[in-house]
Amino acid sequence: MSDPRAARVMAYHARSKHALDRYAAGPGTLDWEAQPAAFRDWTGCTQTALPREILVSDIAWGEIAAAREPLPFDARSLGSFLRLSLGLTAWKEYAGSRWSLRAHPSSGNLHPTESWLITSQVPGIADGLHHYQNLYHALEHRAWNDGTSAPGVWLGFSSIHWREAWKYGERAFRYCQLDMGHVLAAVSYAAALHGWQPRLLRLDSNKVAQALGVDRSEDFSGVETEEAEVIVALHADANPPDTTWQHYAGTPSLLDPRPLYQWPVIEEVAAATRGALPATASAAQAIATHTDASDIRAAQVILKRRSAQAFDGVSVIPHSLFKRMLSSLLAGGSPVWQLWPHTPRVHPVLLVHRVEGVAPGLYVLPRADVVESLGSALRDSFSWQVADDTLPLYRLVTAQAGKTARTLSCHQDIAAHCAVTFMMLAEFEAPIAHDAAAYRHLHWEAGMLGHILTLEAEAAGWRGTGIGCFFDDADHEVLGLKDAQFQVIYHYAIGMALDDARISTLPAYA
Ligand SMILES: Cc1cc2nc3c(=O)[nH]c(=O)nc-3n(C[C@H](O)[C@H](O)[C@H](O)COP(=O)(O)O)c2cc1C
After folding, report:
1. Which has the closest alpha carbon to 230: 188, 266, 263, 195?
2. Domains 4-272 and 306-495 alike in fold
């Protein structure tokens, strides 16, 4: 690979693979007492509590796609939106331990993503850059300038790699990026409920870092750094915000006073994947309404979303839900594809265990015109039988694949006891050779797919769980892949959850 950045990404990807006989480099020991702090404080900033009321609690899940009058931007509407996208949804308690959950899942519940809000002329909120402190559902005023600029609201995101690297070592960069995809999907759903049309800005990473103030090395001296990810405009006219900050306030807290290990390859791959988003190839499509969706409230679906920690191993997914989940992964199937109107490059391969009317086995759902290239890359013996009358779903092989799914997913029972295990298969080498930043974007797309599956399942009384731990090349062997043209970058399980009655639930904000 001639581009040194792309070569670095490919080398990182290879060394961060888990294999049946060797896990990617990670900490030899974990001191759970020394886990990095889950929340970063910005001391010295003015903190403004946001209203907590959910303003869109009447909208049914099946109505999420309906056109609606956008709510005006103000402290109330942004408070409502932030609760449904990035806020805490519950506290959990068991055996003296207490931990919080959020509207989006995160690998190991470590939540590396930090959220920022940039506002101009929003009633009830000072102009400038704010850190969203989800612990208190409050804004911390981090930077501003003296002038007045055009009205608008933007969200920004950065990742604190150490939160994930503390536990997962070198593979952690991948998890930060998958989490980012979940976050962007969560933003899409919450924005749709408020009638807003979010757009990702095509800004270079350096510009994003400057806008979010995470490039100020003087402020981050002695504490964990933050890697700039992306800025999202919450309105359709996606001009960048004016971020010529003249004043800064606050200092970020240290999350881990005694880091035991270092994983320099994470900073290397982060540097190699900086860049801007690709140009949009396709126009955003209107979202189809699911006529058969339940009338459960969308806000309730979002607030009660949890990852299943165990599945029952017997329940069969109704065919209608299976079809609804798969169609929401296709263009026009979810508000997420309005935020991400790029040509799809991640194509789910399904290990179907228990779906009404669908024979157990291995299936593929090409989300773009890749049947030919997939056909020549995947195992020759696959049958490619058309498996649905409306969806681009193909059966590759009929088999009971529960044990295989468990083995491939780092021997986790959830992959066998769920009803379907998804393997997110990404077009890989070519997009990265073209632009190394694609490595991040492929993981975002995979995270978005997982998030959509989770919410569709949740709305119907089922549950999902992300599976970041899988044996990469064992997957590729099952699929017959011989090179890096395609790579599996995420697993996802959907099934009927078994709840652990010993864990008690407390409100997110007392
Ligand atoms: C990228 C990613 C990878 C994950 N990997 C696993 C996994 O390998 N095994 C597992 O049991 N859960 C996994 N999870 C689920 C998380 O443990 C879960 O999201 C977290 O504990 C927070 O709980 P919640 O989703 O209920 O809020 C993963 C989640 C994400 C987003």
Report:
1. 188
2. yes
Given a cut of 80, whether residue 471 has pLDDT beyond it is: yes
Of the chain, the end-to-end C-alpha distance in Å amounts to 54
Please state, in angstroms and rounded to a whole number, the distance separating the CA atoms of residues 453 and 433.
Answer: 30
Determine the atom of ligand 1 nearest the C-alpha atom of 469: 8
CA dihedral (152, 335, 461, 471) positive or negative: negative
Single-letter amino acid, residue 509: Y
Residue 34 per-residue DSSP state: G
Question: Rounded CA gap, 99 and 38, in Å?
Answer: 9
Give me ligand 1 centre to Cα 498, in Å: 15
User: Who lines ligand 1 at CB under 6 A?
Assistant: 101, 105-109, 175, 178-179, 182, 306-307, 412, 414, 465-469
pLDDT tens digits, 365-419: 999 999 999 999 999 999 999 999 999 999 999 999 999 999 999 999 999 999 9
Residue 247 CB neighbours (<10 A)? 11
pLDDT tens for residues 272-288? 999 999 888 666 666 66
Report the nearest atom of ligand 1 relative to the CA of 450. Answer: 31
Rounded distance between C-alpha atoms, residue 438 and residue 429, angstroms: 10
Q: Write the pLDDT tens digit of every residue in 6-45.
A: 999 999 999 999 999 999 999 988 888 889 999 999 999 9
Q: Mapping DSSP to helix (H, G, I), strand (E, B) and coil, where does residue 379 land?
A: coil
Residue of 107, 111, 163 best suited for mutating to test ligand 1, as the one with most atoms within 8 Å of CB: 107
Q: Which helix (H) or strand (E) holds 101?
A: strand 97-102
Question: What is the CA angle 155-62-500, rounded to 5?
Answer: 80
Query: Residue ranges per domain, the chain?
Result: 4-272, 306-495
- pTM to 2 decimal places: 0.98
**Ligand 1 center from residue 305 Cα (angstroms):** 12
CATH 3.30.365.10 fits 4-272, yes or no: no
DSSP labels for 186-208?
HHHHHHHHTT---EE----HHHH
User: Separation of 494 CA from ligand 1 center, angstroms?
Assistant: 13
So what CATH class is 306-495? Answer: alpha beta
- pLDDT averaged over every residue in the chain: 95
- Give me the numbers of helices (H) and strands (E) for the chain, helices first please: 15, 20
The answer to whether 29 and 459 are in contact (CB under 8 A) is no
Partners of 130 in the β-ladder: 117, 141
Radius of gyration of the chain (CA): 22
Decide: 233 and 199 in contact? Cβ < 8 Å. yes
Phi, psi (deg, nearest 5) at residue 12:
-60, -45
